[in-house]
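Could you help me review a protein record that somebody else here produced? What it holds is a sequence and that sequence's fold in token form. I have pasted the whole thing underneath without changing anything:
=====
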Amino acid sequence: MLRDFNDEFETSGPTAAEFTTRFRSLLMRDDVLVLLAEADLHDGPVGPDGPDAHPIPVGLALLTLRPTPYHDGPLAQLEELYVRPTLRDRGIGTLILVDALRRVSERGAGEMHINVDEIDVDTRRFYERHGFANIEPGTDYRMLCYVREL
């Protein structure tokens, strides 16, 4: 699904095979959380017993947890949240995000960070609806994220 996401937004990145290899490694870590949303979708012809439905992945979240001096627990970073384009605006992203917040809270996280491209207004509105902000209370300026590949 991450390869699909990168293709959708014309972003370069790892191949599906490279993602698979990296996910195998990441899933072994205690400081990584991957959530997968599945739905029973009709994926074939209607048989004599009705539609051929089986669960398929429809969305995912990848979160990392790291130590921080600002909280007793870790800082959570939502690295990726993706819902298949044809299934957006059905609440799947909200369910994934709410579950992610619950799970990182259970792990003692004091805060969650999310990076969003400025141009992606719909995604920014989505996170803002769920209580995220890029302006800290008492300030009138936005927080920025700086990136440098190594």
In short: Residues 59 and 82 are 5 Å apart (CA to CA). The longest helix spans residues 92-106. The two ends are 25 Å apart (CA to CA).
